[in-house]
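Appendix B.2, paired examples.
Example (i):
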Amino acid sequence: MDEFCGSEFWNNSVTWETDSPHFTRCFEQTVLVWIPCAFLWIFAALDVFYMRNSKDRNIPKGILNISKLILTALITILTICDLVYAITYKGETFPVNFYTPVIKIATFILAGVLVHFNRLYGMRVSGLLFIFWFLMTVFHIPRLLTEIRLNNNRVDSEDFDYQESFDSEHYNFVSFIIFFVLSCLILILNCFADSQPQDMKYPPSDKPCPEASASFLSRLFFHWFDSFVWLGYRRPLENKDLWSMNAEDTSAEVAPRFLKYWNQSVAKNSQVEPYNAVQSASFKKSSASINFTSGKAKKPSSILPALVKAFGATFLFGSVLKLVNDLLTFVSPQILKLLINFVSEDEPLWRGYLYAGLLFGVATTQTLFLAQYFHRMFLVGLRIRTALISAIFRKALVLSNVAKKETTVGEIVNLMAVDAQRFMDLVTYLNMIWSAPLQISLAIYFLWQILGPSVLAGLAVMIVLIPVNGVIANKAKNLQIKQMKNKDERVKMMNEILNGIKVLKLYAWEPSFEQQVLKIRDKEVHVLKQAAYLNAGTSFIWSCAPFMVALSTFATYVLVDDNNILDAKTAFTSLALFNILRFPLSMLPMLISNMVQTSVSVKRINKFMNGEELDPNNVQHDTSEKNPLLIENGTFSWGDENSTLKNINMQIESNKLVAIVGSVGSGKSSLISAFLGEMEKISGRVNTIGSIAYVPQQSWIQNATLKDNILFGRPFDKKRYEQIIEACALKPDLEILPGGDQTEIGEKGINLSGGQKQRVSLARAVYNNADIYFFDDPLSAVDSHVGKHIFDKVIGPEGILARKTRVLVTHGLTYLKKCDNIFVLKDGEISEQGTHQELLDKKGAFAEFLIQHLQEVNEDTENIDEIKAQLEGLVTDKELKAKFDRAISTTRSRSDSTSSGGSGKLSRQTSSNSETELRHRRASESPAKQADTSKQNGTQQQKLIESEKSETGSVKWEVYKHYLKSIGWWLAGATVVLNMIFQGFSIGSNIWLARWSNDDAAANDTGKRDMYLGGYAAFGLGQVFSQFVMSLIYSLGAIFAAQKLHTVLVKNLFRLPILFFDTTPLGRVLNRVSKDVDVLDNQLPHSSRMLVAMSFTVMATIAVISYSTPIFLVVIVPIAILYYFVQRFYVATSRQLKRLESVSRSPIYSHFGESISGTSTIRAYNVEPRFINESEEKVDFNQVCYFPSIIANRWLAVRLEIVGNLIILFAALFAVMGKNSLSPGLVGLSVSYALSVTQTLNWLVR
């Protein structure tokens, strides 16, 4: 290299062994130039990758990007001038004068090309270019100082003359100063983001996330979040303050990506078996059919490969950031070693300041890398949760009847609420799988460099703990499976209770059902207690591990050889490495616990996602068929061995009204389900042509306005809407309802009568304007005269649907005469079919059905006189006529005797007709009186379901007090005291180590050495036992609190009035008993324990540094004020975001439960995409609330860690300044504690 430059490449005497250090000219012109250039060339591919994947194009030309190009062009021209000058220079030149400018020219051209293409590909910010220009500027500072120094020397020389001395030295000075200024200007321009692209894949939103328009520097420090934090500090945040979701994080973008890979996985695992695969055949008596089944069952698919393929790239990039952070972690102990060496030996003062600066620089770089790592991991977790919730919802809409029997709504809600969340929690720690072993390996390697083979003693301790860990993990997995099973059982029970709460309260069954729920909860708590003992044991083992490793290593080191002296450099560099080791060792049990929980969740989600789906081929849509509805040789079942329908052959002509009749349980509703594809088709063929509308027997009503229930996603047509309201006899109902058609209907139509619900369901079908209509006995829920009105105006030959194909299941005998064709079902088979007259003439199953029905029917529900009049005109056979007359007279005599026998029937009659009377009474009121009433009612009655309110302001002391009281004051107090004792032992052990390392006598006196060793062991044992007792006491206290709070919740729920359940969505209550109870059981105990532990650790650190260097107390006041304000800003914002997120979670579950109960209707109307879209919108809104809380977390982490880095800086600076008065042991103690504070503050945030 000396020949390459024409001067020496490295000179230790001018760079290191001096009081005024500087690099050689050769080093400045080669290494310091080539490193930034190499960086750009190596990572340019990454920028190209981002450009190719960019969804936007064409950023308009503006001052910023044109200025970047002009300055890049100028700096390139300047470098070309340098090259030309070197070529034309008459004096002596060297290869460095040619090669370095050529490398710079090529690099600057590449930078210019990247600027240009970033603009074309819509990249508003380039992190690569920012880092390149930052490195280029920083790496040229040493040369800037050299050039200024040399120029000053030239000017100061006596024979200097400006006119004569424009030599190469002077040219280089001027050229370099211009170069450096241009470099600084380009760096400043790269601190800003470009304007919005013109061509964007996603339309710009009303409130875009500021991150999109933030510069690289702003993104690095999360500066773009400042305004939001300030807003959250000034006033409680509301939904309107939140930004829109980034388009790439929305369900519309995330879900299809996951589903693409999931469907590929399913298709791969369900490929057709090879021709020689063993097959078995089974004969079904019920259907008289032979089923061939493959000898090899379909292999179940797992969600994991699909998740990896969909979100692996972002995760991988995050892993690279984590790797850099992990490697940087081991730089600090090496600098600490140099710093202790500096204090103990006579070295130039600038080195001490350099070490302090390096400690701060390394720690800050770690902070930025770690913040970006967590940001990406949280984003991946967010996307996984979104994808899983969407996939679970889609799956629930297509589950077959067999699969539905295996899962309940409660279980599926748990999959969305708890299991999907588990992934989110795990993703942030998942990299510890490789990171923990890497950190442990590197720590042992560096410890080997210091302590030699003595490290093997510590390694042996870790190896012994591995099988112990395996046993614990296995036990934890079994407990987690039990826990989830109990949780499912409890949520399922609560779901059933909430669905039937009216019945429960009418029968006064609350105490017995409350006991059932609490019984299941007791089982849960029993498992939680076992887990608490296990966790306390784990905590004992892993808090014991770092101390045992340190003790065994130090003991072996000093005992194995008398020449091994434990001085400050050895002790505290080792201690810093042991502190690093403590983190992965303590993280492993948490990681294992999280992985165990997630593996259970994976199995549960896999089982659900592999559930059998409805076969889309059950119904074909062959348009070449003559008739719109057709079943040929159809045999159907509900997923069990027995066939519900057999030998079904039916064709229904276009625009005809067809009735299906039969006794109860004959399979009428099943026949309609077969047409809709809801049943399992064993044999035969089903074909439908055209769109379908369906009115189920049990009407399905959404929690929306009455108008929205009727429109059902269709555009509003006022004329048609009013015509349908009139035809479906809903006009009088609209007059009764407080808000008319804008009245909000509660969950499951809770504020409508049975008849009203059925008429709304009917109006929905009619408004849908389909080609085919299926009516599953809709007239049975309404009064007979209303039924007649609906039949005449809607279903019958003169009704709105006269030109549609209609299939009517009915028991109303008066309507049959007006039907074009009648199918009679008996024991799941069509016994006969024909017109009303033809069937009467046959005197077969239809006649039997009529007689049986006439004998069973009430005179109130059927117009007996009208039926009699109809039959007299149609029945010619005397014998049949006599049978009908006998049946009619039997019905009348039974009806008369019931009326005279008591008031039971009369009250029933009053009850059934009350709705009609109320309607007539309301209709007869004067319009003025009605208007007055509606004014009094106001808008409150129109809105039945109140939106969930979230608290504002700080969490009241009463809440904390209530939780601590639930834990128990003694247990809570004991936890704090034990934490203080633990920190006391911890500080004591390190001060003891400092004294030992400073005591020269201990090197020669074995008695003194053994005393120090014994004392160190005693302090360590004190730490371990206080940690174990604290962990056990707090875990049990938290379980008691969770049990008490759950009991209070359940007791209060059962004692709430019916009105509460009418006006509160079921999902909101389920959210309380599922997700919120899970937080009480698992998350809150862990978070609060960590909070207390980390708070005491920070206090202990400050105490130790202040003890070592009392001057530190001067700095701690401004640092504490800074910390306080950052914390205050964060807490105000984060707390409100958590509340908004919790409130936005309930609608997801409410909508989900509602959709599951109406799957057959949703499928019949073919509106699955709309419901999926609605669900995804609710998930997106939940993520809109959650995303800022992730950013808030990182915003705080960066600021708190910088506060921690300032503590490191000042601890090191004061150690350098007090070099002459401090012992190396105290410096080691102070700085090693400071180094661990950043990690502690990081945990405190989390």
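Example (ii):
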Amino acid sequence: MPFNFCKDDSGFDVNTDLEAANTGASETVRRNAGEKRSVHYSIAPTFKNEFYDFGHIEVERIVKANDREYNEKFQYADNRIHTSKYNILTFLPINLFEQFQRVANAYFLFLLILQLIPEISSLTWFTTIVPLVLVITMTAVKDATDDYFRHKSDNQVNNRQSEVLIDSKLKSEKWMNVKVGDIIKLENNQFVAADLLLLSSSEPHGLCYIETAELDGETNLKVRHALSVTSELGADISRLAKFDGIVVCEAPNNKLDKFTGVLSWKDSKYSLKNEKIILRGCVLRNTSWCFGMVIFAGPDTKLMQNSGKTKFKRTSIDRLMNTLVLWIFGFLVCLGIILAIGNSIWEQQVGDQFRTFLFWNEGKKNAVFSGFLTFWSYIIILNTVVPISLYVSVEVIRLGHSYFINWDRQMYYSGKATPAEARTTTLNEELGQIEYIFSDKTGTLTQNIMTFKKCSINGKIYGEVHNDSNQKTEMTKKKGPVDFSFNPQADKKFQFFDHSLIESIKLGDPKVHEFLRLLALCHTVMSEENSAGQLIYQVQSPDEGALVTAARNFGFIFKSRTPETITIEELGTLVTYQLLAFLDFNNIRKRMSVIVRNPEGQIKLYSKGADTILFEKLHPSNNDLLSSTSDHLNEFAGEGLRTLAIAYRDLDDKYFKEWYKMLEDANAAMDERDERIAGLYEEIERDLMLLGATAVEDKLQEGVIETVTSLSLANIKIWVLTGDKQETAINIGYACNMLTDDMNEVFVISGNTIVEVREELRKAKGNLFGQSTSFSNGHVVCEKKEQLKLDSIIEETTTGDYALIINGHSLAHALESDIKNDLLELACMCKTVVCCRVTPLQKAQVVELVKKHKNAVTLAIGDGANDVSMIKSAHIGIGISGQEGLQAVLASDYSFAQFRYLQRLLLVHGRWSYFRMCKFLCYFFYKNFAFTLVHFWFGFFCGFSAQTVYDQWFITLFNIVYTSLPVLAMGIFDQDVSDQSSMDCPQLYEPGQLNLLFNKRKFFICVVHGIYTSLALFFIPYGAFYNAAGEDGQHIADYQSFAVTMATSLVIVVSVQIALDTSYWTVINHVFIWGSIATYFSILFTMHSNGIFNIFPNQFPFVGNARHSLTQKSIWLIVLLTAVASVMPVVTFRFLKVDLYPTLSDQVRQWQKAQKKARPLSSRRPQTRRSSSRRSGYAFAHQEGYGELITSGKNMRTKIPPPTSTSGLEKTGYNSTSWIENLCKKTTDTVSSFSQDKTVKL
């Protein structure tokens, strides 16, 4: 280390803390913000040599402000970012290297080299080089286009402007030119250019507000505050230019919530924590300006450290194809060796008799050398088993599937005019094999909009509409919303449909008034007026914004606050309350309270928090009200609403003074300060009087519940990975029906050490396996071949009733230790997994864990920059163009605007793509084995001379012209069942997950089928031609007639076969199949005509042969016999299979045919309520520490008197949209109705 640190009097060891930060092994030293340190150290003159260790691994960072020359010695990265893969110089070599990693491309290159050797070339070289160059060029253009857009995105970011302090002047600089140590100025609503140490701001005490949606997905504002010594610099450019502090801090890392360092300035040292740092990707909000010093730039920023690398993605079918190509090449080598040995034997025993006749020179060619050359010749001839047209066709089919996704109107979101987009064309069939979905929460499952929906006050529910017979009814637009015109300051976006609450307010119900008064007083919201005189709320959490806005609309308007007072307007009257104490929220207390004195001198404690906590603090006289409120909370929780209990207490003046004196003593204590304060909070928050409860809706995106249910029926596991709080994530889990009260147990892993996490995981596994059957034994060690079956057995017996919740700090320990296998095993046994407070990198690590150990196809979906790593890591990455920018979309493989479209993307487009691609491959291999292996059988009758059985033009055109379009039509348009049936019966998705439609077994079946067809194609005509004569008495067994007969039989057989394989007929299928046969005969007669012979006499010497052969009735009988012998076994087998062992798709197809005329109506999904067990719906997206800020006054601007005229004031700072559309939406349970009605019948 380049510094020598020593401890100060308080025991603060900077050296130890920095080492801990570098290793990520200890927590940040806990100190009050801005506290001065008397740490003494000397800077060694040789630090440059010690800065890097072990091959340029940075172990700590040293940055001096306003000194580029000093900082350049460390060779820190600049602020330019690179997400692209290529540049002009590296594109060609890197792209070619990537393309030739595909075994088929290397295989065809090898064949091309062989065809360039005249001694062994039996086919011309252009038959290989043209399609090979075409495929490589098409792929290169696609890759270049993709990378061009990455470059464009990089340039857009790198060329953003920022004000940088250079030579004592603020100059506009591009982001990419910003250097470590620079001081830059940010203005309101600007993105932060690099990771900065906050120096000063426009707010009091050096505070600034930031939005971190790009980092953690949370849109609620967070506070950062500068050191008091630097906040004094203000906006004085001359003083900022003279600032020469040196920061010593941790090396670049990906930990978003930790930062450890020391600032040395003016012979004093100051500790730096995360609260002093503003990270790249954040947006400055509600702060006019701030100045910051660049600590990390470009790739060293925590955002880029979490972004992950762009990976080259290939589908499982691509990987299988690589294996199969190697197998086929080995098969060809075996065939070549057999034929080469046959040639050597034939040359030795029979060939000598032909030497004189063929004018060969004696000794010029021995048998072994002849066999060697024949081997390579047959390798060239037989290479059509895997023609390059296969890969051209695959790319065309994938392109077609991509366009179908882009053109799907049912995935078009009219709200933002956003269509679905396939941003890659190489992964479509993988969409049909997904087993695990990793989803973000905020903005993906939810709209990130909080709406006050219901409340319970003094045992009565408000927010439900009743009909004339006093029965609860669905809220519809027939029952108009409450008219808030009596309140000129009401939020016009707020809607509420229960008029009885307004009536209770007007009647002066004291409990209702007290309830709304509490909502207006007990919070951390800040208010201000903009230039237009409009009231704006700065909300630290969207929950609080919803509650304060509701109180505002009902006439209790929060107006302003100072460190000592809160001013609200109660039904038109301004009332100022004295703020005596603020009992802040934290994750242990799960509640917050304020103690205020009203104008009458009464002291009141107002509290809100989790019902499970607050109910324990109630006075015994609340039992009856507690019972009814608990029932209401159960109902709210069952509807997926976020709930808070509301209570108050009247305090005696003398008691409060004694209590407050003890609180002051506790705050001044050096030992056990936090424990003493917590105890005093507990003491005063007792004997509370219950007022009721609130129910806020974190609005789910439309169709989320139906989508989750449908995907679950398709045996797809959904894991939620979110940076949000545990309670919030759990509540959304219940709202989405991922979590239910019917579950046997919900395991919560929240250990703070590896030992604790290991113990919790093993305890959970013990509970799970202890209650399951013995199927779980041996699960981990079972072979992969049996693992899918065993997994399904275990999941059927142990899962469906369990869920796993794990926190980010616990997950960090689990992923970085030997217990990750325990975590994975437990998680995979659970129906639902929710990971809370996870960093972007942890999201990617979870995906990688499942990819590596489960060998399952994964999909990640998110909408923010914090999801980019996860999207890049998964096999399929999907970006939602939502509220948090386009970073996720730019990094994704597919994008759309709503989570509900995922159902159609997977169950329809994904399943069809997989089904079509598998059908295409099966047919293609069958067709080419049947076509190619005829040469093998012919070799035994032509002296193993590498003579082709077909003429060269037929070989060239067979895969390009005669059979290409029908198989393309099938691969692009075919479907076994309709799109609606695919959605209604999610179980149809399972064959893709189990990889049933194309695997090694299916490949061998196709090979055997092709071998059988090749035998029929060769030996039936051969036997018929043997000693046969034509109708005119002439011999017809010439080589060319034999070739024409076999070629005609082959074209007809493969055309009939694809007609049998086609499940869904379109006009295009008919035109392509029957048109290909017509094209074959047209070209055949043309090539054997006099006209073409006169033009190219050397290329087409067999004049009139086709006409002569095909006018013979015996030839057509041979063709018919060959076709029947080839096809009848297939027809028989398929008929018996469908009749005796029908698959689910066979059954659904039969059902479709039966229901074409009379399709039954879908039954409506009944409303479900979870009343089986008591569950708290508590979820509060709040952070600890705001109470201290409020009471200290650090976040207060200069106090402005409350306005006297309030007409026309409107809240614009807090978003709230109408939720009546969601409540009026009539959803139908098509998934349930189909699976119950059809699958039982079938």
